[in-house]
Amino acid sequence: MGESSGYKDYIAGVLAGVATVVVGHPFDTVKVKLQKHNTEASGLKYKNGLHCAARVLKTEGVQGLYRGATSSFLGMAFESSLVFGIYSQTKQFLQGGEQSGKPQPYAIIPSAAFGGAVISFILCPTELVKCRMQVQGTDSLVACPSRYSGPLDCALKTVKAEGLTGIFRGGSATLMRESLGNATFFLVYEHVRHHMHLRLKDASISRTHLTDVGIGILSGGLGGIACWCVVLPLDVAKTIIQTTQDRNSTRNPFQILTSIYRSSGLRGCYAGLGPTVIRAFPANAAAIVSWEFAVKMLGIRRD
């Protein structure tokens, strides 16, 4: 990263967040449903992500795949703005103005983890609302005592029934997921981007807008896949903690994962892996391409 441009880093992040939701939310809905229902001892079971998506489309149409997207748009725009802005500026500070061009893990990892930790406090309530909206779809065979007419209704009913702390259910799982996940994502993204630019330079291929987009797609997509392969079990635990109807159930993600492992094995801990990995590439590629485009348009210097 070259010179940071203050607020511009945060503006660029907003565009990345919007692109992520547009491309990735339908996959996320399928992932959440698989995590909720395929880890339960009884009730609705989906054969795979395709079966889940087909059932949602049959019972609710395309809008069913975008259920809970309103809170996602708001949450992701704000979250992405913060994570990209904090990452950019913290990384520049830790590097002390050094612009060697080579990725520096000592700056990338803490910068990304710090950004992830900060946004987890915003993500937790918005994802709780999103997940509860997603699992109440008409394809659910599990009785739902509270039907939510919209994100605000869901948030208000949650606070009324569980208190203010209820809206932050799954906070510790979200914090760990975001810190570890963002560190993994940016580390892979920066290294893939750097080495691809070196290959182009060695091959004497001139940089064009098209090659930059291609590098953004590959580096962002691979970063997203690496991130979710590392943190998906924490995400499974978070989904269960946030969507359970039992208010007295544990909020410890490791206890949840231990229970899942005993009943469903490693496969249960990675419930939703298919749609998550399929989503991770295009959603994160779209985020990086949008971010890099905004960075260029806003005149932010990069190495």
Q: Number of helical segments?
A: 10
Q: What's the CATH superfamily, by name? A: Mitochondrial carrier domain
Number of domains: 1
Give the rounded overall mean pLDDT: 86
Proportion in β-strands: under 5%
Rg on CA atoms, Å:
20 Å
* Secondary-structure element string: HHHHHHHHHH
Q: Which CATH class is shown?
A: Mainly Alpha
Question: Spans with pLDDT under 50 lasting ≥5 residues?
Answer: 138-143
**CATH topology (level 3) name:** Mitochondrial carrier fold
Question: Helicity range of the residues?
Answer: over 70%
Query: Which outline best applies?
Result: globular
Let me know the largest β-sheet: none
**Strands, total number:** 0
Pfam families: Mito_carr (PF00153)
InterPro entries: MCP_dom_sf, MCP_transmembrane, Mitochondrial_Carrier
Membrane topology: Multi-pass membrane protein
Family: Belongs to the mitochondrial carrier (TC 2.A.29) family.
Would you mind describing this structure in some detail?
This protein has ten helices and no strands. By secondary structure, it is mostly helical. The protein is globular. 48% of the residues are buried. Mean pLDDT is 86; it is low at 138-143.
Structure summary:
By secondary structure, the protein is mainly alpha-helical. Helix content is 75%, strand content 0%. The model is unreliable at 138-143 (pLDDT under 50).
Supply database-style keywords.
membrane; mitochondrion; MCP_dom_sf; L-ornithine transmembrane transporter activity; OLC1v1021484C1
How is the topology of this model organized?
Elements: H1 7-37, H2 49-60, H3 62-65, H4 69-95, H5 105-135, H6 151-162, H7 171-202, H8 209-243, H9 253-269, H10 273-297
Transmembrane segments: 65-87, 107-124
Main location: mitochondrion
Subcellular location: Mitochondrion inner membrane
